[in-house]
Amino acid sequence: MVDSRQVKEILLGLGADLCGIASIDRFHDAPKGYHPTDVLPTCKSVISFACRFPAGTLSCNSPVPYTRVRNSITPKMDAIALDFCIEMEKHHIACVPIPTNENQWDENMGRWRSIISQKHAAQAAGLGTIGRHSLLITPEFGSMVWLGAVLCEQELECDELKENICDNCNACVKACPVNALADSELAQQTCWDYAFGDDVATQTWVIRCHQCRDVCPYNLGTENLFIKKMNP
């Protein structure tokens, strides 16, 4: 039988930078249809992992580096989750990978959702806490992480929850050019319509805005403080 320590060793060996485990009882407030057991009825644990997103991309004048890193890291996360599930089946434990960047329409709430919320899974697994800007903030890398998750049928020892990191300074609220953070819940479509799309001049698809991430005083956590010192 594989224990929590071995689970983390496997994921870190596959390329994850952070890994945490949540027990199924931490998802009692998941939206209807988006609870882990709605996907895998035998789910006992949710394993969340993260890969760091190069912080230097925030300082670029061109949107291309940030966009290309985002487009490259998504399949990396999915590959890690898939390889992990295959490895776990060698130990006779069934696991299911959750897509990193794939959404479906929730007609009950009028929002796009992943079949399991990656950031809520990460928070439940003790990787970090969700900030006012709706992004996960980790102590190690701030919000400069991409998230993956796996549902597991084995009950595993879970990690302690983190103390809240965001202090609601509202810097992200003030920085948003389309007021998508004016209410307590992100105006999802307003944000997406502005931030993602075709650049008419270069005729390429880009992510043109990440200002809420840029201004967050916790955007780089502690291990990236050297970048803050270089770019005050």
How does this structure look, described?
- The chain is α+β, with helices and mostly antiparallel strands.
- It has 2 domains: 4-152, no CATH class; 171-230, no CATH class.
- Helices cover 31% and strands 19% of the residues.
- The chain has 8 helices and 10 strands.
- It has helices at 4-14, 36-39, 64-89, 118-124, 171-175, 188-195, 211-215, 225-230; strands at 18-23, 45-52, 95-98, 104-106, 111-113, 129-130, 136-137, 145-152, 196-199, 204-207.
- The strands form 4 sheets. The chain has a 4-stranded antiparallel sheet with strand order 1-2-8-3, with helices on both faces. It has a two-stranded antiparallel ribbon with strand order 4-5. Strands 6-7 form a two-stranded antiparallel ribbon.
- The radius of gyration is 18 Å and the shape is globular.
- The model has no long low-confidence stretch (mean pLDDT 93).
Key traits:
two-stranded antiparallel sheet, 232 residues, 8 helices, four-stranded antiparallel β-sheet, alpha+beta
